[in-house]
């Protein structure tokens, strides 16, 4: 499902942090290089051009789900990594020319985002570093090639079957390429080349083998981690729901719990069903128009895109369930509504619960409510069987 997006505070703050970090590192490099005022202003103009292109590309990659595989990502992780890279760039000015470990930057950026952003960001820092440090054409060419190679190999690190081979290649190239360009520039070989080549290789290997997996694992699990975070007791929206209605809060928890356990039995995404069940009736907490207000609120909170889809498909009022998880949550909610109504109407009287569940779900299935969800008939039958035996529905 595609939803109209509005300006998001979390992403705005992340972008502002990246802009400030870029300006600060530029001013710091100008100060270290003893730039004249007009030279500093020229470099800041270069920043503006880069930032315009960078944020266009950033938004493009986000909308395609290439950052943490989450269209609704808040970009906080990327902003933190970017700021760290700015500090690393300043630290690299203390290294000798040609032997600045520029491969580290695209490795970190690629882990937090995509190869495209890693290349563009890395090359920007290369140019900034070369200009501020008074580097030659050979030095800039060396950094540019190393950045592109590092981004490509870092992207390959995301593929499990390659193992540590890309990291080894990075370390080897980080040792050999600076020496090659140094010789092309000065036509000499020195002991310092070997020493700093080894240091660069170690720094690159550490960034690729230790820091990259941690950043990449965190980015890869962003959605699942967030789905658990937003249903925790101390999350702002959970607290707001308790203040709004304890009855609604207990119902949301019950619905999320049933959907979660059913999803584990059937093979759907449990955490998505847990959060989807909890926030399914979010619109009722906010007021009319229910679906629109719920979707706007969920988007503003940077809820993962699959969860926003489920919320937008509330009771199939505006959109039919578009995923098996959404269909499952629709089924649980429909049954809870019917059971609650019967309990109020009939009190302690007995009725055939299994028959009610089978009849209700069969009617929805026959009406084509779940046709677009991707739920197979076998999965539907498993869900129906689980719900018929679920003690919390009795």
* Count of separate DSSP helical elements: 18
Overall structural class, as computed from helix and strand content, comes to mainly alpha
Alpha-carbon Rg, integer: 27 Å
Strand % is under 5%
Structural notes for this entry:
The chain is an all-alpha fold. 73% of the residues lie in helices and 0% in strands. The chain is built from 18 helices and no strands. Helix 14 packs antiparallel against helix 15. The chain is elongated. The mean pLDDT is 90.
In terms of topology, how is this protein built?
Elements: H1 9-32, H2 37-63, H3 76-92, H4 104-112, H5 115-132, H6 137-156, H7 165-186, H8 191-220, H9 222-229, H10 236-244, H11 246-266, H12 270-279, H13 282-286, H14 290-300, H15 305-312, H16 324-346, H17 353-366, H18 377-389
Summarize the structure in short.
This protein is mainly alpha-helical and 394 residues long.
List keywords for this structure.
394 residues; 18 helices; mainly alpha
């Amino acid at each position: 499902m595609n939803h109209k997006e509005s300006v998001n505070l979390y992403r705005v703050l992340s972008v502002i942090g990246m802009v400030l970090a870029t300006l600060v590192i530029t001013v710091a490099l100008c100060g270290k290089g003893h730039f004249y005022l007009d030279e500093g202003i020229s470099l800041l103009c270069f920043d503006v051009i880069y930032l315009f292109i960078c944020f266009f590309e950033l938004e493009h990659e986000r909308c395609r789900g290439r950052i943490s595989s989450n269209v609704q990502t808040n970009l906080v992780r990327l902003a933190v990594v970017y700021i760290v890279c700015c500090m690393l760039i300043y630290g690299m000015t203390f290294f000798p020319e040609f032997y600045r470990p520029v491969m580290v930057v695209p490795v970190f950026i690629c882990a937090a985002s995509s190869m495209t952003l890693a290349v563009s960001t890395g090359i920007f820092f290369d140019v900034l570093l070369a200009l501020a440090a008074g580097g030659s054409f050979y030095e800039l060419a060396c950094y540019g090639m190393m950045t592109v190679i590092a981004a490509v190999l870092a992207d390959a690190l995301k593929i499990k079957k390659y193992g540590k081979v890309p990291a080894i290649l990075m370390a080897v190239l980080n040792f050999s390429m600076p020496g090659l360009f140094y010789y092309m520039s000065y036509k000499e070989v020195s002991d310092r080349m070997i020493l700093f080549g080894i240091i660069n290789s170690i720094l690159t290997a550490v960034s690729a083998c230790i820091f990259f997996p941690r950043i990449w694992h965190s980015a890869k699990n962003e959605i699942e981690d967030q789905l658990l975070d937003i249903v925790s007791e101390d999350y702002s929206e959970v607290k707001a729901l308790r203040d709004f209605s304890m009855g609604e809060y207990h119902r949301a928890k019950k619905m999320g719990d049933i959907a979660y356990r059913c999803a584990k039995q059937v093979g759907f995404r449990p955490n998505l069903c847990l959060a989807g069940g909890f926030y399914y009736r979010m619109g009722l907490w906010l007021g009319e128009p229910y679906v629109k207000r719920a979707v706007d609120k969920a988007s503003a909170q940077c809820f993962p895109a699959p969860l926003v889809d489920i919320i937008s498909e509330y009771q199939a009022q505006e959109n039919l369930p578009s995923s098996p998880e959404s269909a499952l949550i629709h089924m649980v909610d429909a049954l809870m509504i019917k059971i609650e109504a019967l309990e109020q109407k009939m009190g302690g009287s007995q009725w055939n619960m299994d028959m009610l569940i089978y009849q209700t779900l069969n009617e929805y299935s026959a009406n084509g409510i779940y046709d677009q969800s991707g739920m197979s008939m076998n999965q539907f039958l498993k869900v129906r069987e689980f719900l018929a035996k679920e003690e919390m529905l009795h």
